[in-house]
Specification:
By secondary structure, this protein is an all-beta fold. 1% of the residues lie in helices and 40% in strands.
């Protein structure tokens, strides 16, 4: 199967100011703190793409929320859906979610996917892994299932991030049920830490406590849809959706309680009260929060060479912001410094092997966008 690839067109700059992109995201030139950026559509026709991962050969694995995993070439040719993907619960925010490569992918060809899994009682977040072949995932195994399964279509998470020690972090949501995020007997509203085969690391914070789910690494989370490993410290940084206000950026520490729904920087949608104050000394505090919300989804620490002034910065997808949001960070704190407006819901942000920034648009006709410095003509 092939989908369209658009040829870039030039947007004229008048008096040095680049014209903004009208309507939804499309090819053109936009302004940024790093100078004019070229926005190119690598591929489109994707139905609500959710996660993107680059293969060593430059091809991309892309998930579509309805339950399809596709290979996309660097030239933008989109392959037919790969066989072997488990059945997904594709309702509301549920569906096929993130994708990640095993750290030893070059040897074992293992690919990990997170998804909303249907079952008795409703659905919950699950993680499966399989061996990638050109047309399929083979020998697929489910290595994690969130419990319990519940009705409704909200708050599944979910991002996957491999730590330097080889363990896998799995972010989740509390399925819009509030209190389970504080209940250590379940895996709702938690960040989990498992080995690549799904077994439990011996040094997980609650591994020796009775009546506690041993995969739990941290708890008190609402709906974590952005996560990445800090390139210097190796710590997991994660961003979760707040209610009406209060999206939170957290440095995730073992065994800590991040407060939901005991406290929040935001207010709920008139269904219930959230107690003041916004945080408490006994709870882990976010290092940055957004009110109004950006609706964060997908993040990366930029380490490429195309944008030298952005080295080490955090790039976050904004669904409500319709932008890539850039933050400066020093390993302990962070602050937003720029929004790269794209006029489309941005579901994921990934650094490509070429140092360019790749973004997924969350639309019925979703696209893979490539952002790079505009080439300057030789004098």
């Amino acid at each position: 199967m092939r989908m369209s690839v658009r040829t870039p067109w030039v947007v004229l700059c008048v008096l040095g100011a680049c014209l903004p992109l009208p309507g939804t995201a499309q090819d053109g030139t936009i302004d940024s703190s790093a100078g004019p950026l070229r926005v190119e559509t690598v591929a489109d026709g994707l139905e609500h793409p959710w996660g993107l991962e680059f293969l060593p050969d430059g091809r991309m694995l892309v998930t579509e929320r309805p339950g399809r995993l596709r290979l996309v070439t660097a030239e933008g040719d989109v392959g037919a859906p790969l066989a072997g993907v488990p059945t997904v619960f594709a309702e509301g925010q549920g569906g096929l979610l993130d994708v990640a490569l095993d750290p030893a992918f070059a040897k074992n060809r293992l690919v990990y996917i997170s998804y909303a899994e249907p079952g008795e009682g409703g659905a919950s977040t699950a993680v499966a892994r399989g061996r990638l072949e050109d047309s399929a995932l083979r020998d697929v195994q489910v290595i994690f299932r969130q419990t319990p399964k519940l009705g409704g279509g909200n708050h599944f998470g979910s991002r996957l991030a491999f730590a330097p020690d080889g363990n896998l972090f799995v972010t989740t949501g509390e399925r819009f049920k509030f209190e389970p995020a504080q209940d250590l007997s379940n895996t709702l509203g938690k960040i989990l830490r498992i080995r690549p085969d799904g077994s439990i690391p011996a040094d997980n914070p609650f591994v020796n406590r009775r009546d506690v789910a041993p995969a739990i690494f941290s708890y008190g989370h609402r709906n974590v849809q952005a996560a990445a490993i800090h390139p210097q410290t190796g710590a997991l940084w994660a961003i979760e959706h707040g209610p009406r206000g209060g999206d939170e950026l957290n440095i995730v520490e073992a065994g800590r309680n991040y407060g939901w729904p005991l406290v929040s920087w935001g207010r709920h949608y008139n269904l219930r009260d959230i107690p003041d104050p916004d945080t408490r000394p006994d709870l882990a505090q976010s290092i940055y929060q957004w009110t109004p919300v950006i609706a964060p989804s997908g993040m990366t620490f930029y380490t490429g060479r195309l944008f030298p002034t952005w080295q080490g910065d955090i790039l976050v997808g904004g669904l409500v912001a319709k932008a890539v949001v850039r933050l400066k960070q020093d390993g302990k704190s962070a602050e937003e410094v720029e929004r790269i407006e794209l006029n489309a819901r941005i579901r994921d942000v990934v650094q490509g092997p070429d140092g360019a920034i790749y973004a997924l648009t969350d639309e019925d006709n979703g696209a893979i966008l490539r952002l790079a410095p505009e080439a300057r003509a030789a004098p």
